[in-house]
Recover the amino acids of this structure.
């Protein structure tokens, strides 16, 4: 029974960190630097002051154990690896993507995607996966997944810039519809 409780606590801590390191740092009195970093001690104190105590061991466990590597620790600082809706510059250098990348979504979004392409919505960038399996997992978080192919090579040739985060997520400002490959009937 304890292991299940530990797993639930780990998920709860991870979601708390994501919320406050990606989207709402001000809600617990945090100020991220221009690259999204905050001192770990400051984060832990702010969380505790707002009724959510996190031990350093729990934080280290969440950072090390997260299969998506959502967080990065550098010295005494922590930040979210990507996915911010607050203004940060992760300082990622432009990177040459593989020929194809993938995006997981659900069928109800396909009409808008066909018309407008992929847009970052409330994030800074569109998130793309290096393989179909990862994109399938991403899409499955919202329902039955649909995986779109992205002709990253053609986009790059036509001047679109790509970045890759520390956890392997490919980022670009948008993906116009002409670069998308929609799944056909099976």
């Amino acid at each position: 029974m304890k292991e299940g409780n530990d797993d639930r606590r780990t998920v709860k801590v991870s979601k708390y960190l994501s919320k406050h390191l990606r989207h709402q740092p001000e809600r617990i009195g945090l100020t991220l630097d221009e690259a999204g970093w905050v001192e770990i001690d400051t984060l832990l104190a702010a969380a505790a002051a707002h009724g959510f105590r996190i031990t350093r061991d729990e934080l280290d466990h969440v950072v090390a154990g997260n299969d998506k590597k959502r967080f990065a620790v550098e010295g005494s600082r922590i930040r979210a690896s990507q996915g911010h809706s607050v203004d940060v510059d992760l300082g990622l250098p432009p990177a040459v993507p593989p020929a194809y990348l993938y995006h997981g979504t659900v069928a109800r979004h396909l009409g808008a995607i066909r018309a407008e392409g992929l847009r970052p919505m409330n994030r800074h960038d569109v998130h793309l996966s290096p393989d179909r399996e990862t994109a399938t997992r991403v899409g499955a978080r919202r329902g039955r997944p649909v995986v779109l192919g992205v002709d990253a090579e053609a986009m790059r040739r036509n001047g679109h810039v790509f970045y890759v985060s520390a956890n392997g997520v490919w980022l670009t400002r948008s993906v116009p519809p002409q670069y998308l490959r929609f799944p056909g009937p099976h």
About this structure: The domain at 2-80 is CATH 1.10.10.970 (Arc Repressor Mutant, subunit A). The chain has a mean pLDDT of 91.
